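Researcher: We're teaching a course module on how sequence relates to structure. For the next exercise, students receive a sequence and then see the predicted structure as tokens, so they can try to spot secondary structure elements on their own. Here is the exercise chain.
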Amino acid sequence: MDLSTQKGILQQIQLTQILDLKWSQDLPSSGESLGYCLSIQKRKRTRTKPSDTQVTLMQTWASARKSSVMIIQSKSASTTKDLLIDLVSLIRTTSHPIIWALRFPNYSSRKITRLDILRILVSQALQINPNATSSSSPVTAVHLKEAVDEEDWFRLLERALLGVPEINIVIDSDLFGLATGQDRDEGTRFLQRLPEFIGGTFVKVYVSSANVVEDSVRTRWDSGTWEKLSINDEGVEQKSRRQQKQCAGRGKGAARGRGGRRR
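Model: And here is the predicted structure for the students to work with:
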């Protein structure tokens, strides 16, 4: 009992030290970013939901015991972003661990880099896997302070997930586009390396097709390391047509009413 208590105290101290780092304080918490995206989503009048076939495809892909990247495509950028948020909300209700890098208040006015994306993911990984701060090779605040480049941060993310059999990672298209300077080649290379660096954990990454060069994915990535999901916007279009008919019906009714008054 004493050893268990001491381990828990050590983990809490390490996490507190990590969350007190300047870069950690400058970046949003997982709850803040998700809450911001959900608040935007709630304001929308129309939403497109994936079909049963598409849901089955995602479930089959997610259950496969291998690391892979799911590239989601839609005619509407808004539809893709909504689906990514829906996936975060859905996976959180299950026993499957998940971390994410999502938009947050005033994100567009910030200078966001690829290192910031990795820092966000590392910070969340340590919170869902506190054992990483007290293992035989623990991640400490010192390690995070000394990390310099992407290689360092990729390795820290791997260590932060040590002992976690699987992890789902959702990356917002707008935030990732800002971090890569809208360079899709750069985004493609980054996303290819993300699951490759995390050994011992099955990594499932969900991203928008707006962040990758699909030709490069087809020709340079192994066939088993990625999947594409195309979402059509029929739900929105059909709803819009219904709204148009309703408006037209109201317009005819108003015209008849005016005609009646004239008589």
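Model: If you want an answer key for the exercise: Residues 235-248, 258-263 have pLDDT under 50 and may be disordered. The beta strands are 68-74, 98-101, 166-171, 202-208, 226-231.
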